[in-house]
Amino acid sequence: MKYIVIVPDGMADYPIARIGNKTPLEAARTPNMDFLAQQGAVGLVQTIPDGMSPGSDIGNMAILGYDPKVCRTGRAPLEAANQNIILADDEVAFRCNLVTVADHKMIDYSAGHIPTKEATILIEALNREIVQEGIKFYPGKSYRHLLVVKGNRVKEYMQVKTHPPHDIIDQDIRDFLPGKAPAAEMLLMLMEKSKTIFAQHPVNQVRADLKEHPATMIWLWGQGVRPNLPSFEQKFGVRGGIISAVDLVNGIGRLAGLEVIDVPGITGYYDTNYFGKAQYALESLKKNDFVYVHIEAPDEAGHNGDLDAKISCIERIDREIIGTVLNYFGQYEDARILVLPDHPTPVELRTHTSDPVCFVMYGKDVQPDAAPRLTEALAKEKGLKFASGEALLKKFMTKS
Predict the structure, then answer these.
(1) Which one, 129, 179, 264, 306, has least CB within 10 Å?
(2) Of 205, 224, 243, which closes a domain?
């Protein structure tokens, strides 16, 4: 059996008055998802466990068949894993966003989706200017980077309350700075120093001249220690691959023993190489039986509050990824497709929510249940079919 999971990150949403009380998914033209719904099974799944924040680390870990309450130690260690940063027992990793703050307000969680080349120069400047034992910054992609802190205060750092910057857009950052635990002092010091280092940096001067958001400071959050995931092959008996432009998602895959498949031109944004993701996914099925295709673009549109972009991204995923997969689907007698977001990212909220998400499952031995489309409302009519992402994937991977 061949198994294909397609995850349009943050695709689910709420009805929006200015498009006739439709969601972006309902407003989008999605003939391929509609075909899957008509020929497959539709319903709701609770990807975010009760009591956990609706992060992409939690949602994607759940969809891949792991219980986040057992396996998750934090977001940053997953990204570290994808960069082959092996955390020691006395190390804690933090997500380090490059952000734009003005008058104490979080203007942009991504510093204008700063290009990786420019961002790397800024991260290197931090390592050069902040010379302190046990502190090291690691460049990632675009605005997403890492800080690793080494020392004997691991438990203290894990107790510091931090906040994702994309959850506090247009809000006063002073209400969301790292909490008052003793270890927070180090984090606050690093964030303050980054302001000074970035203020007159040539990269930011050029960005300002071009009317682009400068990276005014770093924002530290999502800390965690080294996680331990059982292998995907051990859990489900198949080898597989994972495709994503996001270190976080690839890190989960790498820790699970999945092959991280590099696709040229993928960006984690609206302009990603949608068609290439589908092509490489199909190619990987020649040697593997499972492939996980993650697309960040709808989530970014949700965080940006960009309704038109979210609809456009959904349509491109349907046309260039799901359509391409369906065109080649017939070459496998035994195959299944699962499509679902990891969590909602409503454009009017600009952050994640914990609501159950719609899914569609199609293929070998999947009994159709006569849904005309894949939408949030129609899935709600079908009801909550799976209480966890782990339960859904187990069903999806079970041979009838």
Answers:
(1) 264
(2) 224
- Alpha-carbon distances, residue 164 vs 86, 207, 219, 223, 352 (angstroms): 23, 24, 8, 11, 10
Same domain, yes or no, for 319 and 298? yes
Q: How far apart are CA 144 and CA 99, in angstroms?
A: 10
For residue 249, is pLDDT > 80?
A: yes
Specify whether 144 is located in the same domain as 273.
Answer: no
Q: pLDDT at position 399, please?
A: 79
Answer yes or no: do 152 and 171 share one domain: yes
DSSP conformation letters of 357-393: EEEEEEETTPPP---SS--HHHHHHH-EEESSHHHHH
61 and 12 assigned to the same domain:
yes
Q: What is the token pair recorded at 242?
A: 């994972």
Inside any domain, residue 77: no
291 forms bridges with which residues in the sheet? Answer: 4, 241
Task: Examine the domain organization and report whether 202 and 244 are in the same domain.
Answer: no
Element holding 145 (H helix, E strand): strand 144-150
Per-residue pLDDT tens digits for 12-23: 999 999 999 999
Whole-number Å distance between alpha carbons of 374 and 44:
11
Rg (CA), the chain: 21
Residue 104 in contact with residue 217, Cβ under 8 Å?
A: no
In this prediction the pTM is 0.87
**Domain shared by 174 and 249, yes or no:** no
**Residue 238 within any structural domain of the chain:** yes
Query: Buried (b) or exposed (e) across 109-135, using 16+ Cβ within 10 A?
Result: bbbbbbbeebbbebbebbeeebeeeeb
* pLDDT tens figures, 263-317: 999 999 999 999 999 999 999 999 999 999 999 999 999 999 999 999 999 999 9
